[in-house]
TrEMBL record:
This is KAP P-loop domain protein. The keyword Ubl conjugation does not apply. It holds the Pfam family KAP_NTPase. It comes from Natranaerobius thermophilus (strain ATCC BAA-1301 / DSM 18059 / JW/NM-WN-LF). The keyword Nucleus does not apply. It comes from the Bacteria. Gene3D superfamilies: P-loop containing nucleotide triphosphate hydrolases. Residues 504-531 form a coiled coil. Keywords: Coiled coil. Residues 28-270 form the KAP NTPase domain.
Length: 643
């Protein structure tokens, strides 16, 4: 699922240098213009950085300009005007930003785990009680820190509760009185109807720069700074072009929406990454890309409150989504009237498909994901619904793949079952799967016969001499990957004797060796299965799980509890509670009355009988336990006819 991209990741040694170079290269003219403004000793005008919300203005200051300010041995002071209700709050924020930048203060703040918001709360509280008006508490900022070494940045101008006249008038004091270089970040489109702003702009703002950063660079930095999961970050960088292309098609400019949507998709990615194996993820690799595209496009349309988002409402499946579009396409093709009509739900869905997924064969491309749409619209990620949808997608894909797999029909009585178009690919994939042990054990003898017959007609990558060993090696590998509970039943271990009639003497010996190996490996799996079950029996006695024990002792066919070792039997008789030892007596009594003795069970019961005799002679066995063990002994004597 994850493709390793060396080009996207640079070494730690030169990472910062590379990124700084990219930044300066992309915005070289803007950088130099602002650098010249910052280094001037006297400035009586401000510079405005404008652009739509989310285009990267604040990011540009935090990651570009503030670094340049520091390079010029000055202190960057960032002040957000968002929610500011009084002019004096601006001074408080500036004071605290300057004050907290002092080295000695930084150290104290770290030691006290004291952040800027705590400081602002204290200063606001002090201001509310009039404490800052008293001489004792008055702070002269120019004495505290040289304002000639400060560069001010005021952000969110259009989001302040104050009028632009009040804010710019106050900012102008810093320009005229202290000649401080001042950057103002604003979305002028949101304040273009404010006449006061443009009147004051002529007096205090000398230059306006529109930020249009490189989307690739913004997205790269957004991913790098926002996502700590390296695997997810790498996945996003792998699909950077898809993200940007989808964003461009949405005709939106706010990169914050991308950030939020990618945070949403991280839940989806983590669910896939943690719950599905590599093989399943490879099967649905293209679907995962479609999930990302759908998550982005659906989020964009909903945030725009577009008519398309309404059209997507209440769709329950990709099949329903496609059916509506197909029906619309057919009706459109049959209409002779080309006059434009009011958009319908189906036409809007078709617009959505064409807008974000292009003119691909949408019958073969999954576009709509119900669980993801529900997540985007409600904000709640229903994991169980998502798992059901993904499981169904995987099953559908596996069915498609199985249609292209080579079928082990060694008599070739049903050649139509093998897809001619995909035969070479299917043959190659089948050999790889056999070699990797990815086939069921029962398939390997069939594979030998199939390849043996095929080799007489067409050239194969396996010759007759290496075929047997290839099959044996694959079987061994397959057995290591097979769960013990999936051991083969007897009916899957035997092949009709007629098979040998068509085999040469050497081939017969080879196939007999393969059959024997199959039985040997299967016996090992079966033995391990019983050992695992035996451990469970011991645990059930220890935890007093009577229902589980009843199920196995009441089974007339599968008497697998007889695989208990001598140590297991002794442990059950000696270490189980008196209550559970008595329950064992009840189980054996019930079995004696209702089932015939099995040969394997006979050896098990004889072993138990001998152990009980020894325990009855052991002085360390409690009196009450001896009484119950004696009852079991009598039951075994009846069962084993030992009277």
């Amino acid at each position: 699922m994850i493709k390793h991209l060396k080009n996207f990741f640079v070494s730690n040694q030169n990472k910062d240098e590379t990124m700084l170079s990219n930044k300066i290269c992309v915005n070289n003219d803007i950088i130099e213009t602002l650098r010249n403004y910052i280094i001037k000793d006297s400035n009586d005008f401000a510079i405005v950085l404008t652009g739509p919300w989310g285009c990267g203005k604040t990011f540009f200051w935090n990651n570009y300009l503030s670094e340049i300010v520091k390079q010029e041995s000055k202190t960057p002071v960032y002040v957000s005007l968002y929610g500011v209700k009084e002019v004096n709050e601006i001074d408080v924020k500036i004071f605290f930003e300057i004050f907290s930048s002092l080295p000695s203060v930084k150290k104290s703040v770290r030691e006290l785990k004291f952040n800027k918001e705590h400081g602002k709360m204290l200063l606001n509280t002090a201001s509310s009680f009039g404490l800052l008006k008293r001489d004792k508490y008055r702070v002269n900022v120019s004495e505290l820190y040289s304002l000639g070494k400060v560069v001010l940045c005021f952000d969110d101008l259009e989001r302040s509760s104050l009028t632009t006249k009040e804010i710019l008038g106050h900012i102008n004091n810093y320009l005229e009185r202290d000649n401080i270089p001042t950057i103002i970040i604003a979305n002028e489109e949101q304040i273009e109807k404010d006449d006061d702003y443009f009147d004051l702009k002529e007096k205090s703002i000398g230059r306006t720069i529109r930020i249009k950063n490189d989307p690739n660079l913004i997205l790269y930095n957004l991913i790098e700074s926002s996502f700590k999961n390296n695997r997810y970050a790498e996945f996003l960088l792998t699909h950077q072009s898809l993200i940007l292309e989808t964003f461009k098609k949405s005709e939106m400019e706010n990169f914050r929406i991308i950030k939020q949507t990618l945070h949403d998709f991280e839940l989806i990615y983590n669910e896939l990454d943690s719950n599905y194996n590599k093989e399943n993820l490879t099967i649905i690799e293209n679907e995962i890309e479609n999930m990302l595209c759908f998550t982005l496009s659906c989020s964009f349309e909903i945030r725009k409150n577009s008519s398309i988002s309404s059209a997507l409402h209440n769709i329950k499946s990709n099949q329903e989504f496609m059916s509506l579009i197909i029906q619309y396409s057919m009706e459109k093709a049959m209409k002779k009237d080309t006059q434009q009509e009011e958009p319908t739900r189906a036409s809007l869905l078709d617009d959505f498909r064409r807008k974000y997924f292009g003119y691909t064969n949408f019958k073969k491309v999954r576009i709509f994901f119900e669980s993801i749409h529900l997540f985007i619209t409600t904000g709640i990620f229903h994991k169980n619904d998502f798992k059901k949808e993904i499981t169904k997608i995987i099953q559908d894909k596996q069915q498609e793949i199985s249609d292209h797999n080579l079928i082990f029909d060694y008599t070739f009585t049903n050649p139509e079952q093998i897809c001619e178009e995909f035969f070479d690919e299917a043959l190659k994939n089948t050999i790889i799967k056999l070699s990797n042990g990815e086939m069921y054990l029962s398939e390997y003898p069939k594979a030998y016969l199939t390849f043996r017959n095929m080799s007489k007609i067409i050239e194969l990558p396996l010759d007759s001499d290496s075929l047997k060993q290839f099959i044996l090696n694959g079987m061994i590998e397959s057995s290591t990957q097979t769960e013990p509970n999936n051991y083969l039943k007897d009916t899957d271990l035997h092949f009709p004797s007629s098979i040998y009639k068509d085999l040469s003497s050497k081939e017969s010996n080879d196939f007999k060796e393969i059959e024997d190996k199959l039985k040997e490996l299967n016996d090992e799996l079966k033995s391990q299965f019983y050992k695992n079950k035996s451990k469970m029996v011991c645990e059930w006695f220890e935890k007093e799980e009577k229902n589980e024990l009843w199920n196995i002792f009441n089974d007339p066919i599968d008497y697998w509890y007889y695989s208990l070792s001598t140590e297991d039997i002794r442990s059950i008789l000696c270490d189980s509670s008196i209550n559970m030892v008595n329950y064992l007596y009840e189980l054996l009594e019930y079995r004696q009355k209702n089932f015939d003795l099995n040969e394997n069970e006979l050896a098990f019961l004889k072993e138990m009988y001998n152990i009980i005799n020894n325990l009855l002679q052991d002085n360390t066995t409690s009196k009450l336990r001896k009484i119950i063990l004696y009852k079991i002994k009598l039951t075994l004597e009846n069962k084993l006819n030992l009277k």
